Amino acid sequence: MKASSSLDELVAALRCLPGVGPKSAQRMAYHLLQRDRPGASRLAAALAAALGRLRHCEKCNSYSEEAVCAVCASPRRDQALLCVVESPGDLLMMEQAQCYQGLYFVLMGALSPLDGVGPRDIHVDRLIRRAADGLVREVILATNFTVEGEATAHYVGEALRARGLKVTRIARGLPVGGELEYVDSGTLAQAVLERREA
Ligand SMILES: [Zn+2]
């Protein structure tokens, strides 16, 4: 009985992953237990370590093991540029495109009233405080070209402009509905280069 209840718990726990239903959770559990026990241990350890060590960077809100992340702490970054992205994955894409030397703010989501995601959930107040540090000269909105991403860019842009900040939006070299994460580096670099006043 005891063994089966921890199996049930594992299957139930795996269902917290996006898009994982009861059947695939069961398949994953069997796979980990029968075919890849070292992989399962590694996963468990990595998850515990990440949960224990990672927090949000005080400046950019991305994940960091330190109070301020390596990008924000770097003296080589241009303090006058602040790029707003939806997720740490988008920040990574921007870094890989090697088209940008400024700093970031990660919203950790996008406005989505239907899902109950409002301005507070995407830390708009923190972004405004961050952008008003006196060093930032331009805020570049690099949210996705989805309905949520566009609505977020609009809302955030208004709020920043109301405080006298210069706001630009990356160019529509990206397809409509396009998510930064799935765009190639060249296209993303071009979109940043061709950004225009929003
Ligand atoms: Zn940071």
Give me the secondary-structure topology:
Elements lengths: L1 H13 L7 H14 L1 H17 L1 E2 L6 E2 L5 H4 L4 E8 L2 H10 L4 E5 L17 H8 L6 E4 L5 H15 L4 E4 L15 H9 L2 E2 L1
Parallel strand pairs: 3-4, 3-5, 5-6
Antiparallel strand pairs: 1-2, 6-7
Helix pairs in contact: 1-2, 2-3, 5-8
Bound molecules: zinc ion.
The site of zinc ion (ZN) has 9 residues, from α4.
Structural write-up:
By secondary structure, the chain is an alpha/beta fold. The chain has helices at 2-14, 22-35, 37-53, 70-73, 88-97, 124-131, 147-161, 185-193, and strands at residues 55-56, 63-64, 78-85, 102-106, 138-141, 166-169, 196-197. The strands form two sheets. The protein has a five-stranded mixed sheet. A two-stranded antiparallel ribbon has the order 1-2. Helix 5 (88-97) crosses helix 8. The longest helix has 17 residues, at 37-53. The radius of gyration is 20 Å and the shape is elongated. It starts with a helix and ends with a strand.
In short:
With 198 residues, this protein is α/β, with parallel strands linked by helices. It has helices at 2-14, 22-35, 37-53, 70-73, 88-97, 124-131, 147-161, 185-193, and strands at residues 55-56, 63-64, 78-85, 102-106, 138-141, 166-169, 196-197.
Characteristics of this structure?
198 residues; alpha/beta; five-stranded mixed sheet; 8 helices; binds zinc ion
Average pLDDT: 92
Continuous helix count: 8
The backbone outline, from C-alpha atoms, is elongated
Give the helix/strand class.
alpha/beta
How many beta strands in the DSSP annotation?
Answer: 7
Largest sheet: 5 strands, mixed
Task: Provide the gyration radius in Å.
Answer: 20 Å
End-to-end separation in angstroms reads 61 Å
Strand content: 5-15%
Low-confidence blocks of residues? none
Name the helicity range: 40-55%
